[in-house]
Every structure is written in structure tokens, then in C-alpha cells.
Amino acid sequence: MRRAVRWRWKSSWLLRRVQCERGRGYLPGCLSPEGVQWRTLSFSHHGQHLDVDVPDLNPAQITLLSAHLRDHARAYLTTLSVAKIVAIIDEAITRLLDRNHPLRRKAEMLLPIVTGYDAEMIRLGLTGYLKTFRQPQLKRFLTEDFNDPQLLDDFQPRPNGGFARAFGPDLLMHIWAGNVPGLPLWSLICGLLVKRAAWANCQC
């Protein structure tokens, strides 16, 4: 997987430009970074500035990326049990709840610049929101929508007779607000729980 999103961070009170780590996201191997048009999103809050380079795909590239995501979801995501997916998500959330984890530190550093929210508000909000997606909560979400979450794994007997199984959409497309920290997690995680590939357009 190739890195798809690159950022440059600089502080207005510094005389020199500070180059941040590059690679917030990934560009799948089906696309070449050299063949993709890039555009820059700029954010300025709290006396700091952030430039984020994002891919601007043409229709042919979108079609290629969609096929790539569907193929990889079938090859990997659909082979996992719902219980395994819940455990993987829970592990990721556990890491993000650790304020010493590099990704959590990066989020606390950059989100105030992107959103304009106070740093302490970001810290408290992230912790409270991320706890929504721990393993017990995810199991409750699944039970609310599916009496038997194993319907997503295989055919299960129904009380009125016969068997049933649940399938998610072939491919999910998300349009996310880019100025509300953590909000996209809802739709992203729901898509993962039904074992489907997804890609998103983040509106900033």
C-alpha cells in the first residue's frame, strides 16, 4: 500500500518551516501516486497552519479503486467472523485511547488546527467518543440490528422455520464532515461490521 495523504505542519511563531511526518493515509497499490492529481487543503487555527495533500481522482481512477476495494474485501474481510472483526476494532480503539500512543498524540496535535476546537476539548471529546466503540458496545450495536449477529457469518435457523443470512452492500461510499473529530467512525465501523469495503469523500 502506498501512502496517499501527506501533510506539512508549520507554526506561525517559528521562523522556520517544520516538516511533519508524511503519510496520514494510503493510496492502494492499484493506483500510482505519480499518475494521480493532488490538491492541497489548508487549515489555520490557534496560530498554526496545516497543509494536507489529498488525491483528486478522475472517473477512471474511481472505478479502478472501487473494483480494488471490492476484490480485497471479498478476499479478506468476508473471511473473518464478526467476532474477529469486533476484536480487531476493539484493539485499534484501545490503542487510540492510550494518550501515549503515537497516533493519539498526532490526533491531539493536528485536530485543533483542522477543527479550531480547543486542545483540551479535543482530548476529552476523543476519549469519551472512542469509548463508544469498545467490544461490549459493538456487540450491543450488532444485537440491536441483528437478533443473532452470526447471521453475518453464515446461515442461521429462524424461529419461524427456514434459514437466513445477512449481507452488507457490495461497496459503501461515505461523505464525511471534515471538521467534527471522530464522527466518521460511526459509518466506517458499521461498514466493517457487515464485512464490506468502503471509501469516503471528506468534506472540509
How would you describe this protein?
With 204 residues, this protein is of the alpha+beta class. It has one domain (2-203): Aldehyde Dehydrogenase, Chain A, domain 1 (3-Layer(aba) Sandwich), CATH 3.40.605. The protein is 39% helix and 23% strand. The protein is built from six helices and nine strands, in the order βββββαααααβββαβ. It has helices at 59-75, 82-97, 102-115, 119-130, 135-145, 185-193, and strands at 2-3, 6-11, 26-27, 37-45, 48-56, 156-157, 163-164, 171-177, 197-203. Residues 1-25 have low confidence and may be disordered.
Distance between the termini: 25 Å
What is the C-level CATH assignment?
Alpha Beta
Q: What is the annotated CATH architecture? A: 3-Layer(aba) Sandwich
Q: How many structural domains can be distinguished in the coordinates?
A: 1
Strand order of the largest sheet: 2-5-4
**Tally of alpha and pi helices:** 6
* DSSP helix fraction: 25-40%
Radius of gyration, whole Å: 19 Å
Number of strand segments:
9
**Largest sheet: number of strands, sense, barrel closure:** 3 strands, antiparallel
Query: Which of globular, elongated, flat, extended, rod-shaped describes the shape?
Result: globular
Mean pLDDT rating: 85
Strand content: 15-25%
Give the topology string: H per helix, E per strand.
Answer: EEEEEHHHHHEEEHE
Give the CATH superfamily: Aldehyde Dehydrogenase, Chain A, domain 1
Structural class: alpha+beta
Kindly identify the CATH topology. Aldehyde Dehydrogenase, Chain A, domain 1
Low-confidence stretches: 1-25
